[in-house]
Design goal:
Distance between the termini: 19 Å
Number of domains: 2
Largest sheet: 8 strands, parallel, barrel
Helix content: 25-40%
Number of strands: 23
CATH architecture of the largest domain: Alpha-Beta Barrel
Strand order of the largest sheet: 1-2-5-10-12-13-14-15
CATH superfamily of the largest domain: Glycosidases
Bound molecules: 1-O-alpha-D-glucopyranosyl-D-fructose, calcium ion
Low-confidence stretches: none
CATH topology of the largest domain: TIM Barrel
Shape: globular
Length: 558
Amino acid sequence: MADHITKKWWHDKVAYQIYPKSFYDSNGDGIGDLPGIISKLDYLKDLGVDIIWLSPCYCSPLADEGYDISDYYNIDPRFGTMADMEKLLDEAKERNMYILMDLVVNHCSDEHEWFKKACEDPDGKYGSFFYLRDKKEGEFPTNWRSYFGGPVWDDLPGTNKQYLHVFHKKQPDLNWENPELRKEVYKNINWWLDKGLGGFRIDAIINIKKALPLRSYDPDRADGLCSIQAMLREAKGIGEYLGEMRDCTFKKYDAFSVGEVFNEKPEEIPDFIGENGYFSSMFDFNETVFGSSEKGWYDAKPITPDDYKRCCFESQAKIGGIGFLSNIIENHDEPRGVSRYIPEGECFPQSKKLLAALNFMLRGLPFIYQGQEIGMENVPFSSIDEVDDISTLDEYQVALNAGLSPKDALDAVAKYSRDNARTPMQWSGEANAGFTSGTPWLKVNPNYTSVNAAAQMDDPDSVRSFYKKLIALRKDPEYKETIVYGALEPVWEDRHNLMAYYRKGDKTLLVIGNYQMDTQTVTLPAPYQRILLNNYPDLTENEHAITLQAYQVLIMEM
Ligand code: TEU
Ligand code: CA
């Protein structure tokens, strides 16, 4: 399998996502910042991290927490200065680490200079950087519903036109049909790569290609609007732009790029992440989108261990040896994975480690989201007033409109709120979880007294220590080739609450997890040679039969 793949510098790496606002606050203003990140590089190095993806820290009004950029060439003063960014790049390099920034170019902020100029002269150069349409009374140009609720059209201030925003109204969509706009984007990417960036995570990129001419689709809710998906299903030819972007930027630098790609068709996978694909990798969202409903979060169906297994194996089969998925348990848009993928009431260190091992050993690039390595959990929200995230606020309203009581609406959206992942990183059991000496911008999860990094650093049985062992195993010269390049082969697929697979390269490894509280006995097809990792101190064996304890997970060499 490895034979036909050209080896790349990033294949054997381990990545870690930082949400700067919530990682570590160095100056007591309650907001995480770049100097804070620099001061924690050794913590990440100790864990074994190679690549760090920073969620946006460019100048931004923070309407969508930085995913609304008003200046692509500067750091927002709340996060630090360009000198801090340069220092971060230097310090990372010294530790053989790579920094990725977030490339948010489906849209910019309505406070970006381009947008201001478009308002001043909608028929001029910058007007054509956006999607503008003449305003008609009582009718929008199309009936699309924004991802954050409401119509995608708003008045272009000071004009008789309207502009398109598939996300928030402070995030006007950029017009990728315009070669001048594309040139500006590539210029910016190269400017950052010249500074020594390792690459980019590429935000919401499937949205850059609109089906033209823009038109309405059948409404799918009582609001008379339709999901953006209806339009995206019809949009053809995104590859032209993505290929051009690759050739004008990443390729020249051998940079790493990971795309936020949803809904790719199986036949498109080689174009996206094959040899000379548009991106080095793309995220696997099969597990995160499972159970989602067209109606909204309130109607989503929870995922069971068997569903989780099926989703992982489906993605693995789809990609095969074509390229490398980036595997996640959570990110800044999702609830905490341990609260989502482990049935309610069963979240404890062993089950957290099981989830870690099952995900980490999949073929692909492991991405860890800040706090995942210490087993951070969802937040117990007691009021919608505690929520900051615009997406959750919208979904709460959708739930109320559907007739849910305020309490039921809160319970329903709390499970999926993006704020679950955005509470401050829990560094210690001290005030504010050691995140800030001031008042944190978002309430700290009250469980920080028991779940925090300080308590786990020197405990060999902690969740963090388990992650550290998983990372070390991936880098072990004995097993690296197999873990990075080896094929994945599911076993006992139909067994309830058992997730097991082989990784086959120059070695054969068996990963096996008992995804439940009850014990489960499995007869191994052959004796194993050794156990490489076990989340329990021992293993119950009888000839070839092993009996797994509650949420016991093993990595064995066969
Ligand atoms: O997310 C894109 C996206 O489509 C979603 O993840 C989803 O619609 C949203 O999270 C609904 O809750 C990216 C970023 O990851 C996200 O943080 C930004 O808000 C969004 O793009 C806009 O830039
Ligand atoms: Ca700060």
